[in-house]
Design a protein that fits this description.
It is built from seven helices and twelve strands. The chain has 296 residues and is an alpha+beta fold. Strands 2-1-3-4 form a four-stranded mixed β-sheet, with helices on one face. It has a four-stranded mixed β-sheet with strand order 7-6-5-8, covered by helices on one side.
Length: 296
């Protein structure tokens, strides 16, 4: 792989070599001797991302390097757990059975994109010709609802921003300081999030919907990697138990119609019991509206 310096050298990273320039030089070098390949990243729920490239017909070592870089980029750019390759079989075998089996960095990619995010093994499959999957993109419309009594919170790294509105008119907007990253006890997250929701909801006559924003990767409304839960780590005898915030908010706030994007993870059975055994009739510190938390 020919690493080409950019025409303008970045002051803060003088050794930076853009991948785009390497691909451009590679395309020029193999002109007249190129072979097309296809890469499909299966994302689940009916979505598959397809990408096409040209490689050399006879330089296996260079092809392997470029293919490894492209697959890594696509995994992190679009996300997915199953990689389909319409490429020479020996090239696919080297990528699957050597690089993605023995390279520590690629083992990390497999663990994150496989079990951690998608809950299944990360696979590399040789899929020539008709065996190659077609591109498909499944989208889910979100939002577009402005009426009723609504609460939204944004779980940031240093504060929780809370907002409430009734029929499009703001009734509450505020920030609540917190420091979630080093917190290993889920009760800390539980109390601060409940406090922010309750403070905003106290300005409304009722609660029709809740929206939650949080940085990270969420699949099926569950956090697989989230910045606010980085301190939770699985260990021997522990298990991961995730529950979408939608269901938890319904239990907290009565029979309101709640929708959510985002939630948090309980990795320890003991921590889960501590968090869920708190009396539902008791408000977290700073809350004032007891009707929001009905005893069950």
């Amino acid at each position: 792989m020919l690493l080409i310096p950019p025409s303008v050298t970045p002051i803060l990273d003088p050794d930076f070599r853009p991948a785009a320039l390497a691909w451009r030089a590679f395309a020029q070098a193999i002109a007249g001797n190129a072979q097309p390949i296809r890469i499909a990243i299966e994302q689940g729920e009916g979505s598959t991302y397809v990408f096409e490239r040209n490689i050399s017909r006879d330089d296996l070592a260079v092809n392997l390097r470029f293919l490894e870089r492209e697959v890594k980029f696509l995994l992190w750019a679009v996300g997915g757990f199953r990689i389909h390759l319409d490429a020479p079989e020996d090239l696919v075998a080297l990528l699957r059975d050597y690089i993605y089996r023995y390279d520590a960095n690629r083992l990390f990619d497999q663990e994150v994109m496989g079990p951690t995010i998608y809950g299944r093994p990360c696979e590399i499959l040789h899929a020539p010709g008709a065996a190659f999957p077609a591109a498909s993109h499944v989208t889910l419309p979100l939002g577009r609802h402005a009426g009723g009594c609504r609460v939204a919170i944004d779980k940031g790294a240093s504060d929780i921003k809370a907002y409430a509105e009734q029929d499009g008119i703001t009734t509450f907007s505020g920030e609540f300081k917190w420091d979630p990253k080093p917190q290993t006890d889920p009760v800390y997250h539980n109390l601060h999030i409940r406090n922010a929701i309750a403070a905003a909801a106290a300005t409304l006559p009722r609660l029709d919907a809740i929206g939650v924003s949080s940085a990270g990767v969420y699949i099926a409304n569950e956090p697989r990697i989230a910045s606010s839960t980085t301190a939770f780590r699985p260990s021997t005898g522990e298990f991961r138990s995730s529950l979408p915030m939608m269901g938890r908010c319904r239990r907290w706030l009565g029979q309101c119609r709640s929708t959510a994007i985002g939630c948090w993870v309980w990795r320890s059975a003991a921590a889960w019991r501590r968090a869920t055994s708190m009396r539902r009739g008791t408000l977290p510190p700073g809350s004032t509206n007891s009707r929001l938390f009905r005893s069950t």
